[in-house]
Amino acid sequence: MTSTATATQAGALVDQVVRRFGDRVVLDHLDLTIGDEELVVLLGPSGCGKTTLLRLMAGLDRPDGGTVEVPIRRAIVFQGDRLLPWQRVLPNVTLGLYGPDAGERARLALAEVGLAGRERAWPKELSGGEAQRVALARALVSDPELVLLDEPFAALDAITRLRMHNLVRQLRRQHHAAMLLVTHDVDEAIALADRIVVMGQGQIAASYPVTLSAAEREVSVAREDLRAALLADLGLANQH
Amino acid sequence: MTDVASPAAVAEAPVDQRPPAQAREVFAAASARRTNVLTRWRKRLSWPLGIYTTPVAILIVWQILAETHLLSATAAPAPTVIARTGWQLWQQGTLPTDLVISLVHRALVGFALGLGVGVVTGVLGGLLRSGEYLFNGVVQIFNTIPILAILPVMIVWFGIGEKPKILIIAFGAFVPMYLNLFAAIRSVDQRLVEMARTTGAGTWRLVTRVFFPGALPGFLVGLRFALAYSILGLVAAETLNANSGIGFLITNGQTYMQPDQVWVGLVIYAILGLLADQFVRLLQRTLLRWRPSYEAK
Q1: C-beta atoms of B196 and A95 within 8 A
Q2: What per-residue confidence (pLDDT) applies to A34?
Q3: Which end of chain B has less Cβ packing within 10 Å, N or C?
Q4: Which of A77, A84, A141 should be substituted to probe chain B, the one whose Cβ sees the most B Cβ atoms within 10 Å?
Q5: How many CB atoms lie within 10 A of CB B82?
């Protein structure tokens, strides 16, 4: 335990976590460590327990066994934007923010996600991509040490999703936070991850460190090999 | 296809079976649509009175029926007669006094009391489990008791003064206010509550920025019912025993066989109901601007 204690100064440590819903064991003694400033992509088919794990790490749910250790300063981006429809964009971002500089910090966060000037818009006036960017700004404005993203771009169209990937890469240069991104999209995983972990049978079934350059992530033999390996882990070996 | 004689006609047959080429729709800006005098006038004349259209139409038909004596003056005097009687009562000074007593001394005080208690208990019941257990059972019991049924009890307890009247009106406002506010707070989107918790917002922010605005549509529904039921309570309380107010005006008119005066009282109650509804609609339009609501064409 002493060796892991230092590893979780930042990032997160999930140790032998069990979560049951009735008779169904969703997480079965699962271990996962996320390093300081590491972006881990959690990949798995629908219903394998990805979101359950993320909710445990967010503190929205408690494990039936084992421990979850996460920084207090953490933020979550949900699958839907979950903006308060009765508040304009700026107060949506400052929801959890206190202090006299809250407005200024929120303005900066909105500028970072490319939404400067939209502070006074109502959520109903935003497109799906814009709303999700506000949700991203709301998560990053508190300067979190851990950002948990639960299929944040799943509901967006392909072009908007690629723009969001660029945005995430750009934000990682400015914010030094560990990130856990849950997705079922193999290409999204390869595009963004420092490490890809594949879930299966309630555990981490496989783990792939990704050291490819930005260009290699687009087109390369190594990319295709990784993609094939991930698809095989997901039980989709014959498909492309 | 009866004239399938020549090979050329056979070749054309499938072409004829397609939907006709002119079955298309063109969408363009409203201003670009071709308008003639008729459509312009129709647009100008369509529903110029909004929701007042039907009441005004009823008034007109009523007036015609009364003037042609199809409707006897004792059954329902013409609207103009009612208006004239109202004007006379106003000039005599009885109507202004009765209005102030009914609307301000009774309706306003009772409504404010019921609303206040309803909002406080509704918020406590909605936000706290203990509040729910404390208030819900009692209000559910109250909800099934008609206002008219508790009136005798009120008179036994508080006599025939102003107190039972105010309490009846307060009771009418309290029950729907509590029930709707409770339901509205409980039905606030749990995903938003969860999200707000994860941002690190404190309890006060959670309540003021998530629960209260989220419950506002339901609160306004409750307000509408509360207004309607307190007017109902006002009528009930004033009709059974009163020596002043609109209800007294009506019972007085009944006693001295003056149907015109009875109708003046009824019309005032009706206008009160319409105004209450319009007031809540105005609140909804201004307070719920954020809602992507459906606008009927």
Answers
A1: yes
A2: 92
A3: C
A4: A84
A5: 23
